[in-house]
Automatic annotation (TrEMBL):
Enzyme class (EC, first level): transferase
Gene Ontology terms: cellular component: glycosylphosphatidylinositol-N-acetylglucosaminyltransferase (GPI-GnT) complex
PANTHER family in alphabetical order: N-ACETYLGLUCOSAMINYL-PHOSPHATIDYLINOSITOL BIOSYNTHETIC PROTEIN, PHOSPHATIDYLINOSITOL N-ACETYLGLUCOSAMINYLTRANSFERASE SUBUNIT A
CDD domains: GT4_PIG-A-like (cd03796)
UniProt-listed GO biological process terms: GPI anchor biosynthetic process
Name of the protein this chain belongs to: phosphatidylinositol N-acetylglucosaminyltransferase
Keyword vocabulary terms for this entry: Glycosyltransferase, GPI-anchor biosynthesis, Transferase
Protein's pathway: Glycolipid biosynthesis; glycosylphosphatidylinositol-anchor biosynthesis
Alphabetical list of InterPro entries matching this protein: Glyco_trans_1 (IPR001296), PIG-A/GPI3 (IPR039507), PIGA_GPI_anchor_biosynthesis (IPR013234)
Length: 449
């Protein structure tokens, strides 16, 4: 084992942790998979830990030998496991020690498994990095609770990554994290997989197809689609919509299609596996993104790589994704979105799908994301470590100044109990549950007490 947790020169042992991974599909899942594959190609050891998906439990191997631990814990809401704090300690510790992990990389603020794993990794003296993939509010009850949890988790991380500058600003405001510890590394797209195929789409002189691929939920602007689609169909008889995705708002779209008699102009595909996304995109000319909040939209990159002109709401980090001549932006207002779609239809004769694809090759690369992530890992591994008392002092700094003395003492005692519980539990596991074949001298395993 080399210095700073490297295995030989320039190699790291990394554990990617999140509740969101394949066979579930989405932006976070794609990010973890492609980043892991590129890090493997660059000679690092990468292991993924997530919760079990149905009968997919235990250890599985993916492309290039990517090892995935599907921990036998079932999700209870929105693919998140039930928070237990110390309940995941034995199995997370076993993975960390067995694989010789030196750095834990957690993904997504909504992931319970991510928060618990980062706490256990810090208790074991490992370096931790956190990536935030979403924007979150400040006013509603759920946001207040989530931001407080994030504040305590990020109080003890070495480095953080955000996927856009807007996301960085949002994360810093929510967590109180030092901005100098936050890096901006955007997502990317597999341009070899998402290639144009003009033969699959009809001529724009005959028919114009607008593609929507998204989870049909409020945050993704499904209600906005209900208002926009009928008006666009009324103004432009040559336009047809293809809607891919599923969710609680699908019923509203089905009702809209029935109400306006658009069954022959709006195709509802349901959930589209990621492997089939390209075959849907190449059938269209325009990609429509109606999100109400978005840190960084990978779907826009996939559509642009397939040669589609994008129309999107001007929210979050979306304006940072593409150059102005490749995307038409509008406020998340139905009338403004209809105008933007009309402008995009006028621009279609000037769009060259293969030229757009070649530009995407130069703009975005997962290998470039991996190289920039290595810099973050190096900074985390070279940072100074600290002991249990310093960790507790950082947790204390997360207290709200408006708390009275009684609440503050109660909170401090619970924080101390949780941290000490994990530390004492770690000592017990070291003494009685450590496999004999593990060599701590090689792993440089240490405690922070």
């Amino acid at each position: 084992m080399g210095e700073n947790g490297k295995l030989g020169y320039g190699r790291y042992r990394v554990l990617m942790v999140s509740d969101f991974f394949y066979p579930n599909f989405g932006g976070v899942e794609n990010h973890i998979y492609y980043l892991s594959q590129c890090l493997l190609q660059r000679g690092h050891k990468v292991v993924v830990a997530t919760h079990a998906y149905g009968r997919r439990s235990g250890v599985r191997y993916m492309t290039n030998g990517l090892k995935v631990y599907y921990i036998p814990r079932l999700p209870f809401i929105q693919q998140n496991v039930l928070p237990t704090l110390s309940g995941s300690l034995p199995i997370i510790r076993t993975i960390l020690v067995r694989e010789g992990i030196t750095l834990v990389h957690g993904h997504q603020a909504f992931s319970t498994l991510c928060h618990e794993s980062l706490l256990h990794a810090r208790t074991m003296g490992l370096r931790v990095v956190f990536t935030d993939h979403s924007l979150y509010g400040f006013a509603d009850l759920g946001s207040i609770h989530m931001n407080k949890v994030l504040q305590f988790t990020l109080a003890d991380v070495h480095q953080a990554i955000c996927v856009s500058h807007t996301s960085k600003e949002n994360t810093v405001l929510r967590s109180g994290l030092n901005p100098e510890k936050v890096f901006v590394i955007p997502n990317a797209v597999d341009t070899a997989m998402f290639r144009p195929d003009p033969e699959e789409s009809p001529s724009i002189k005959e028919e114009i197809i607008i593609v929507v691929i998204s989870r049909l939920v409020y945050r993704k602007g499904a209600d906005l689609l209900v208002e926009v689609i009928p008006e666009v169909c009324r103004l432009y008889p040559e336009v047809r919509f293809i809607v891919g995705g599923d969710g609680p708002k699908r019923v509203r779209l089905e009702e809209m299609r029935e109400k306006h008699g658009l069954q022959d102009r709006v195709d509802m595909l349901g959930a589209v596996p990621h492997a089939d996304v390209r075959s849907v995109l190449v059938r269209g000319h325009i990609f429509l993104n109606s999100s109400l909040t978005e840190a960084f939209c990978i779907a826009i990159l996939e559509a642009a790589s397939c040669g589609l002109l994008t129309v999107s709401t001007r929210v979050g980090g979306v304006p940072e994704v593409l150059p102005n001549d490749m995307i038409v932006l509008a406020p998340p207002v139905p009338a403004e979105m209809v105008v933007a779609i009309g402008h995009a239809i006028q621009l279609l004769p000037q769009v060259d799908p293969f030229s757009m694809h070649n530009r995407m090759i130069n703009l975005y690369s997962w290998m470039d994301v991996a190289k920039r992530t290595e810099v973050v890992y190096e900074n985390a591994l070279s940072s100074e470590d600290d002991d249990l008392l310093l960790r507790l002092s950082r947790y204390e700094n997360c207290l709200d100044e408006r708390l009275n003395l009684c609440d503050e003492m109660l909170f401090e005692s619970r924080c101390f109990d949780c941290t000490c519980q994990c530390t004492l539990g770690m000592f017990y596991l070291d003494m009685y549950m450590t496999p004999r074949f593990l060599q701590y001298s090689r792993l440089k395993y240490q405690h922070l007490v």
